Amino acid sequence: QFAWQKTLGNFLAVTGGDRTVSIFDRHGQKINEITLPGNCITLDWDKDGDTLAIITDKSSAIYLWDANANKTSQLDSGMRDAMSFLLWSRVGTLLAVGTTKGNLLIYNRQTSRKIPVLGKHTKRITCGCWSTENLLALGGEDKMITISNQEGDTIRQTSVNSEPSDMQFSVMKTDERVSTRESTVSVVVGKKTLFLFNLNDPDNPIDLKFQQSYGSIVTYRWYGDGYIMIGFSRGCFVVISTHIREIGQEIFQAHNHKDNLTSIAISQSLNKAASCGDNCIKIHDLSDLREMYAIINLDDENKGMLILAWTDDGQLLAVSTRRASLHVFLTKLPILGDACSTRIAYLTSLLEVTIANHVEGELPVTVSVEVEPSFVAIGVYHLAVGMNNRAWFYALGENNVKKLKDVEYLGTVANMHLNSDYAAALFEGKVQLHMIESEGLDAQEERETRLFPADDDKCRILCHALTGDFLIYGTDTGVIHYFYIEDWQYVNEYRHPVGVRKIFPDPNGTRLAFIDEKSDGFVYCPVSDRLYEIPNFSPTIKGILWENWPMDKGVFVAYDDDKAYTYVFHKDAIQGSKVILAGGTDVPFSHKPLLLYNGELTCQTQSGKTNNIYLSTHSFLGNLKDFGPNELAEMLTQTLMLKRFSEAWEICRLLNDPSGWNELAKACLHHMEVDFAIRVYRTFGNAGMVMSLEQIKGIEDHNLLAGHLAMFTGDFNLAQDLYLASSRPTAALEMRKDLQHWDSALQLAKRLAPDQIPFISKEYAMQLEFTGDYINALVHYEKGITRDNKEHDEACLAGIAQMSIRTGDIRRGVNQAIKHPSRLLKRDCGTILESMKQFSEAAQLYEKGQYYDKAASVYIRCKNWAKVGELLSYVSSPKIHLQYAKAKEADGSYKEAVMAYENAKQWDSVIRLYLDHLNNPEKAVNIVRETQSLDGAKMVARFFLKLGDYGSAIQFLVMSKCNNEAFTLAQQHNKMEIYADIISSENTSNEDYQSIALYFEGEKKHFQAGKFFLLCGQYARALKHFIKSPNTEDNLSIEMAIETVGQAKDEALTNQLIDYLMGESDGMPKDAKYLFRLYMALKQYREAARTAIIIAREEQCSGNYRNAHDVLFSMYSELKTQKIKIPSEMATNLMILHSYILVKAHVKRGDHMKGARMLIRVANNISKFPSHIVPILTSTVIECHRAGLKNSAFNFAAMLMRPEYRNKIDPKYKKKIEAMVRRPDTTEAEEPTTACPHCAFQLPECELLCPGCKNSLPYCIATVSAGCNAERKQLVCQDCPERPSPAELGAAPVWQSITGGCESSPLVFGQVLVKGTALLP
């Protein structure tokens, strides 16, 4: 067994089976060995670690070893029986000793008093524990637990069902803890259960049992807020809570060891728990037991382990094994370290210091030291370690470290700092500055060492620092001294109201952060002797580190145990220098920061290693492309606070957001980085800011430049202060004028530019007028008069006039306004007076300003009709005319009233006056017709009704939408035809149409009845009346019947009408054209086409060729539109009729060849023209003869000589035709050919059926020939003067002679041609 010295942990007492107790120091050196008469039963240290008590099985004496004197003494217990138990009090100097027969001895080491208590137990005392109230709990083989006071008196006792062991006092966990007194005794009973005995509730002890699979209870430990960790023999440990609601529940369970577990230990200072078993030790973090902190394997210890124990400070962990060996592990080092620039020195073992420079990439160097140091200091070329009043110095070579010397000081050194040549040690309120290596240097003797402060200075130095040039120290009186080493004299002094506790200079010594006795933090600049408070400075701050990265001057972190706070000292800001808090970063448990370099905090840990932490304020130093917009926006804020503008630029470039660029630009202005701000503003296109900054960037006056930048950022008060402190204070006045801060501008002008006061006064007065402060506005308008600036003075006089009226001085204001040349002023003053109900003066000013409408309006309010009449010719407002008209009407002046009503556009009143008072109905009727006034129409209707003119009355009733009255009137006076004519032209309801239809039906007027039934949609009744209607010359009733059926789309009605047209009902067939129109109305185009052919044939037989042509063409067009195939008979007949119609036009133009070709086509189909066979053949012979087509002329002349035609020939041509037949001339030029657009077969131009492909060819409507298809794809002949065809350029005049121009051409159809000449297929 073994036991660590309590509190200090400097000694370890170890015993085995060799009747000795060995005492080792913490470095493993044996200090003493105590020989015993028998085997050691147990040993224990007192609460301070000063005395070790030992009992043996062969002696009744108690052995006491004094750790301070290294001496052993014996204490006679006075007991005759052998001792079995020993334990020191946790709070006092009491030692409890138990015997094998159950007796007890309480020994007070301080007073040497012994209190024997016989019969405390009936059998061996095996276990016990002291409470913090000096209560002693004991357990023995008699299965009893006793609670005694320090006098040995039993105050509680209880029995258990098996032998107790491992007894401990503690506090059970409760919801509301009244006191923290240790009132609970815990004890292991029979190695199976954990027994909890509450002294405050002795009747209700708690017996906790565990799973048999865990094995027996080996040991347990209380920790935290009422938690117990229990170790079991089969390798498990379990955590339970002693809260009454949670008791019996396992909070955590882990099977740490495969075969067995022999001991557990808890270090509250480390917040760690350790268990040992098999051949390893496993360490857990108590804050998260699931996390395995460390595993220590002891491969040589194959027999297993025994006991595990920590020192109180958690620095050392010892474990004993079954092989009679003891292992001690260093679990926590004193955190000692120092930094100089980027080099750090830190303790890596109790007797080892490591020097490293990760920034420069140097390899770590370890230095073995002679003592366990209490301080470490690192310089440019040296390392110093020490304890108490001694320090050892080492020279740092490139590859090795050489010990230089050791120095003794006049007191215990609290702290030390080094630079390249000197060391400064702080001890007992003084600092000794001395050279590290004086040998070999031509140093003056007085410069080798110096003690601060001087003897006459009664202050105590609390802190110090050493830079390359200065020794800086702070005192309890609040004075910070700068001692310049090169000149060996003081160069600066700052007095603070309270003592300065810690100081931290930046690497150059030009800025100093310090913490005073109130735990407030400040930054001091010795160059300017200015002090800046550090905001949000936590009172728990332990130290400050300045940034060592050369580009990040002004950044420092203040740290405590849990957090590092990043601060930035903004030196060149437009608001002046200040310190801001940039953010905080969590520091892991037991980490001490040593070095800050580019946002990376190097910390020393308890394990003797370093760990790098990246400050949360420097998260932008990673790969920016890995972050999203939200993270980048946060990083932008960080970079701007840290003045890292280059990184901010990259973030803005990735964000590509105008707001980000704007934020960067504003930050540049804030820190007076003008060139960078120009670059940023230029990037996102703010030309105005670029130009403004370009104008000021060369300004050398700091205050003037800062004033401009403050103005740009909108801090105008700051800008004014900076301007006034600059070399050009008038800039403040210019700024206030530009901002229209006239009150401030006026105050500045009085001091800086008195000649500007009148102009500023005017502007200030205008602002006051706008805010309603008329009295002060009047004062400033009066101050604004210069008497040498006409335009300015007129504006001031106008303001005086208005403000005089506003303040009640109406006479002055009106006179001023009348004298003033401005019309607008008169209007504005008039408006003010009108609002003040000063109508007479307001009207006067309106009239003077030629605002006649307003003047007349105000005169009306005054009832000054005479003045209104005078102004009426200038007035344009209908409202005023209306008011005047009403007044004149009331006076009986109707003519003047009518004129005024007309000017006011009040037509109803005009009509009323014309009818009622001026007896001029014609004028009233004209006005009604022009204005379509409903009320006017009613008045006129009533007027005509009085006169008995019912037709006119009906007309105006309909106009006034009084249809029911009009209908009744028409019915009463037999004027329904008039009413019907009027209403059929109006947008009228079906009910009105039905009323009229029913009336006509009753009157047997079938046509009118049918017409109005059609309008109201009653098609069957409409058709019935149209059929009954007697026929007229124009057969209008049939046309209406067709329209009715066409709208109805009802098969029964259609059949009824067809029967009527075919004569089925009355035996009188109607003209076929009506049947054609019916089919067209019904969109039955095929039936319409057949009918059209029949009609055209009848018309053709009757000689009405134009009618026949029109019928066919209209049908042709409709079929084309409906995309229905054209019957070949229709197409052929249309082509022949069209050819016939074109003959006259070609002949009239003298184009006999085209005329002849058309006539040849007609003559070849002469049977289709039975009424004019001879005249057509005669014309054909004549035109063929004229065109030189002699053979064709002969053939048709021979046809005319037939008996049935010969006598019908016009005598005028008869002899010539007979001569042609008698003397035939058969010469004839061949007809020109053209290519078929479908197959390219060459065929005559006038041939419209291709012999090659049997396709019908499209033809020109001007020439009825296929010759215009010079280009195969040219299916439309644009035969028009505007757009001539590539084929028949001469056809345009022909077409114009037929149609009068292509705009009105009846042959323009379908979607083939919009304007011009179409080709008919």
UniProtKB/TrEMBL annotation:
Q: Quick one: where is this thing mainly located? A: other
Localization, per the record, is: Cell projection, Cilium, Flagellum; Cell projection, Cilium, Photoreceptor outer segment; Cytoplasm, Cytoskeleton, Cilium basal body
Family matches, as Gene3D superfamilies = 1.25.40.470, YVTN repeat-like/Quinoprotein amine dehydrogenase (2.130.10.10)
User: What Pfam families does the record tag this protein with?
Assistant: Beta-prop_WDR19_1st, Beta-prop_WDR19_2nd, TPR_IF140-IFT172, Zf_IFT144_1st
Q: Where is the IF140/IFT172/WDR19 TPR domain?
A: 645-1044
Q: Give the domain of life.
A: Eukaryota
Subunit field text: Component of the IFT complex A (IFT-A) complex. IFT-A complex is divided into a core subcomplex composed of IFT122:IFT140:WDR19 which is associated with TULP3 and a peripheral subcomplex composed of IFT43:WDR35:TTC21B. Interacts (via C-terminal region) with IFT122 (via C-terminal region). Interacts with BBS1. Interacts with TTC25.
From the Swiss-Prot or TrEMBL record, give the protein name: WD repeat-containing protein 19
Q: Which organism is it from?
A: Cairina moschata (Muscovy duck)
